[in-house]
Amino acid sequence: MTNQTVIATHPMVEARNIQKSFGTVEVLKGIDMVVDRGEVVCLIGPSGSGKSTFLRCINHLETINAGMMSVDGEPVGYEKRGNLLYELRESQAAARRAQIGMVFQHFNLFEHKTALKNVMEGPVVVRRMRRSRAKELAMAQLEKVGLAHKADAYPSELSGGQQQRVAIARALAMEPKLLLFDEPTSALDPELVGEVLETMRALAREGMTMVVVTHEMSFARDVADRVVFMDGGVVVESGPSRDVIGNPQNARTREFLGNVL
User: Fold this and answer.
1) Which residues face 35 on adjacent strands?
2) How far apart are CA 171 and CA 173, in angstroms?
């Protein structure tokens, strides 16, 4: 009971006034966002609106210039000592990042390794797991994404959709508390998009906390608990998917959806 109370005291992701610039270009201009555990949040908006940069700030692939980002109650990239924050060493930041799975637009699989060995790589190299245990875990994740029968196939022998599902299995093999998806279907042929989205739908049904940058409005409408529309580095509109997509209140949101739906 006590553990449950502790778990419930903070959200999975909490972003306060997140600002990020690249040189003189201000990409994020003060983003506030909270993602509760078990929630699916979809970030939508035009290219260049800051969605992917914000996603990369969540797992410290990009360092923020101002504001505070925390995952599961811990500052991202920093540790708190008293009232002060100290930047983590890269090895420490990488250890925390290992608890956050990320699926990219491009699959980034090792071409010389089978699907099974691609999925085993993280548990063996990062988590120092015994190969026998890592193999069991990897097979279970390939089974979850419907690709156990392709365990011995190399990426060149898989379709784009299958490669992306292997990438999802690879992220799951690290047993993350949070999954980030950066336009996971945008590099796929249209007929292969459905199989990846169905895998993501299944994860949502299981209660995985997910933040998804996507242009797939039907997925955002049907699966997301909340949709956040970003433009020009700010949050323009946020709310339940049925409201933001079905009945947007902001004129810029209406314009964007009118163009993409």
Assistant:
1) 13
2) 5
- Considering all CA atoms of the chain, what is the largest pairwise distance in Å, rounded to the nearest integer? 55
- Reported as a single tens digit per residue, the pLDDT across 32-84 is 999 999 999 999 999 999 999 999 999 989 989 999 999 998 888 877 777 77
Tally of CB atoms within 10 A around 206: 9
CA distance 143 to 106: 22
Q: Note the pLDDT tens digit of each residue in 5-37.
A: 444 578 999 999 999 999 999 999 999 999 999
